[in-house]
Amino acid sequence: MSSTMQDVTQLLVAWNQGNQDALENLLPVVYDELRKLARSYLRRERVNHTLQSTALVHEAYLRLIDQKQVNWQNRAHFFGIAAQMMRRILVNHAVAKQTEKRGGEIQKLSLDDAVSFAQEREVDLIALDDALKALETLDPQQSRIVELRFFGGLSIEETAEVLTISPATVKREWATAKLWLHRQISREV
Amino acid sequence: MTPERWQLVKSVLADALAIELGSRAVFLANACVGDAELKAEVESLLAEQEHAHSFIEQPAFNQEHSFLGDETLPLIASNNASTAAAHHQQIGPYKILRELAHGGMGAVYLAERDDAEYRQQVAIKLIKSGMDSAFVLQRFRAERQILATLNHPNIARLLDGGTTADGAPYLVMEYVEGQPLDQYCDNQNLSTLARLKLFRQVCAAVQYAHQRLIIHRDLKPGNMLVTADGVVKLLDFGIAKLLTGESSGQTMDATATGVRLMTPAYASPEQIKEEPITTASDVYSLGVVLYELLTGHRPYHLKSMQPQELLRAVCETEPERPSAAITRIEAGRSTDSQTPITLTPEFVSKTRDGQPDKLRRRLQGDIDNIVLMAMRKEPERRYASVEQFSEDLRRHLEGLPVIARKDTLAYRSGKFMQRNTLALSAAALILVTLMTGIVMTTRARARAERRFNDVRKLAKAVVFDYSDAIDKLPGSTPVRQRIVSDALEYLDSLSREAGNDRALKLELAEAYQRIGNIQGNGYYSNLGDTEGALTSYRKALALQESLAADEPKNLDVRRHLARTYTLMGDVLWDMGKLNETLESYNRALLFREAAVAENPVNVEDKRELAKLLLSLGDLNGSDGLPNLGHTDTAAAYYKKSFVMSEALAAAQPQNTDLQSDVFEGLLRIGDIQRITGKPEEAARTYHQALVMIEALFAADPHNLYQRTKVGATAQRLGMLLNDNERAAEGLAAIKRALAVMEPLIASESANASFKRNLSVAHNHVVISLLKLNRPAEALAHARQSMTIIETLAAADGSNNAFRSDTAITHRRMGDAFAQLNNVPAALREHRQALGLQEEMSAESPDAFLRENVGISQWRVAGLLARTGDASGALNYYQKSLANYDALFGSGAQLTITSLDYAATLAKAAAVYAKLNRWQEARAAYQRSLDVYVELRGKGVLPAREAGKSDELAREIVKCEVRLAKLR
Question: Which residues contact B508 (CB under 8 A, 6 or more apart)?
Fold first, then answer.
């Protein structure tokens, strides 16, 4: 087992036991790992192949966490953080691309030059991010569900597990959140 | 929009979405009567549906989702996975290098993660389409977590899994470069000795997985690779289960189940017959593997794969002894190239021990017996575990006697157990005769000093070592009962002869103590005979007290006294004699404290003191055990004990025993936090405790105590979650506890304390399920619990813990019936619970029992109210309240109890109101409100109860309005 794995596992467990400092130390490691994985995935992406946030997040989990030492709550919390981090990575990337297109001088963030995948994307990640923030003020849990599903790539069941609610609730919340977010984004444009 | 408003909009929107398009307008008109804005809002959102269909459905990191429908990706539509591979360069993030093998379930490829940062070769098993992939996947998700925990040097790890773009499931496993076990042995010309040693590596891996409740199901030489370094790696653990899933309600195409996926030559009779598969099935397959490894022959001559022939051969034919099998001349296949060859005695001996005669002698006797014992037709007559099988091989390798005996016709006719017990008791009889011999000899000790000591050593071995060793063997209870009665017989005769022999007295006392533990101490795996245990402890005390009187300064004697008093306290407690328990523990405490004061550097003395403090804490206020109801005293004892244990553990961080003491302390502190209404703190403490015990258990998976404690801790956590309206998580935690406990119960078929724990766990599952509104399942668990606990209570009528549990189980059944709207059955169960509890409460001042009487009373009252019998309900509410008053009068003031009390007051008030007795209703509501206010003042009112005071205040106002009108 790598020492990173040991450390991250310890941090995750400590955080679950209520140690808030542990979270602060945990976030950068998870962030870095996801970014590294994302970069390697994207490079490979030119050879045609499906890839998913799901794979990224699960893989980061397998790499970072010693599964012998964590329980299901730890696991759920990890996926929770990972989804949040994926959101940050992808939105940062989108912002960077947008800045670049506008010819801005701001240094590029996160993902390197290997790809340009966000520009043709159907969903405007920046607008979605803003809409999600708005949704959060109305219904934090719903916003969280979208984060886990869309950015974390978690299935309905996994999302339910992370939030300890029923899959039926996730489905219901997801369906209504989609409509609300879609309207919100359409209005912005 | 406000969050509140959005909740409303969302709720109408979700309902509208669930309704057919055509009926929506009518639905909306009804749902939004008087709120045009609501209707407009919902309609505006519904209008988005047309465009939002695929919106954010693909996770953010997917590449252009347009290519998902693209045909450029090769699909594995073909039934032949190996041809599909020709199109497949990539599976998941892995690049295919070449095909390793293909078979019934699909093909296996060597693959590589083809990115620069991580280079790793893996084996990918691609499941053939035509297998029900949705089913396989679902199963895979459920099992992946479990399989991922298999981390053993002799097991190839399952790394990952998923589906290809076209939905074919695949599994990613550690890639092992090596030769199949049989081939390796032949290529290396390994002797029988070397083969046995290698085979024990296989056993270690299988045993490890069995400890984690994972059965291989497809053990064969091809799944056991030996690397160039001579290390065995087992492949495909649990994979067979993923692909067959016989335990699931869903079944696949009948032809694809069971044995078709198994390699028939290694399948056990129960697998062939498609009966339930257990770890014993792996024992069988291992037996076949060993048979073949040692003889070069398969145990059965299978000419075809016809089911009838298979069934007859495997389930009915007795295999030839290995030593005889090697003399056969028959057609076979070489292990490396699978080319047809003729197996002759010379041929199979050449790669083994050289000469046929030499090989035959090597196998004759022990090996014949061991292999055939593993391969017995009836699972229960094989080795009880792979560990036992491997252990017998070790004994053989070291020239020690083995367990395996030649199977005879008499055994086969079902006489095994009976004969075995007889054989064992015959052995015991001989021992007793020997002991009687000692007694005779003691009289002439001067002449026979040496012989006396020899025999005494033997006696000690029987009581201590023999009994300890058997303790860990599954299903050994009848034998232990026999040992106890025989041992008592010779101990009694020895004590009569002990005279002034100090050493003998000490030994005898210790022996009585141990016998007492085996008879009925709940802390040990015991026979449930509490009266017998007390008698034995008293005999031990008499011997020790007489020694202490002779040597008041002797520290060791005092330690022994402390131990015996503690053990006696344990048993008295189980019998519900709390005051006697306290007295016994306090005596032990005096001796322990004296020992620590006199010898402060002795770690063991301190440990024992810390443990005793925990017991005293439990006796004063443990939740779930009969206790004196003094929570504060309990908390103080726990704290003192925890501080001691922590200091000891900090001084020796590598000492796992000290760690487990700390764990025990944590668990108790968590309990106190929980019952005094600090769920957040309690959850943290439990988590901490669970992490500790899981680490200890993982490091020593054979440890029965730790396994039990993982279960107990998960169960506590589950209880806590249940109490805090997180029943789904609670259910998961308790089911986890059940999963850890159930395999033990199955093997310890007559063990009282394990069974009791299982019954308690079932009861907690009932609580979770009822909170999740799943009463039918809850009832099933309650019934399982009842079956267990009733049997225990019937076997040991003086054990109050069993009776008290029986009452609680009646309550769980009652609650389940109540939720199923079967009020008469619910009433019957609660009344039975109440009857038992009243009976016990009359005999014992136990706060736990008294509280439970109160709880059962308000349960009955609630049900009577449901039938419309208001005066009957009122009667029981009053009884319940009187009980609580008495309880508080005696000083028991737990938050949870107070909440029950307040709730009962409110319910009683409601009945008064129904009977138009407004004055009394008002008074009861007021008292209830007072309790809430008081709890809030102390800062211990759970958040979910926060709204109660408002509710009660409203009820009080209602009462006053009524009263004013009456005036």
Answer: B491, B494, B495, B498, B540, B543
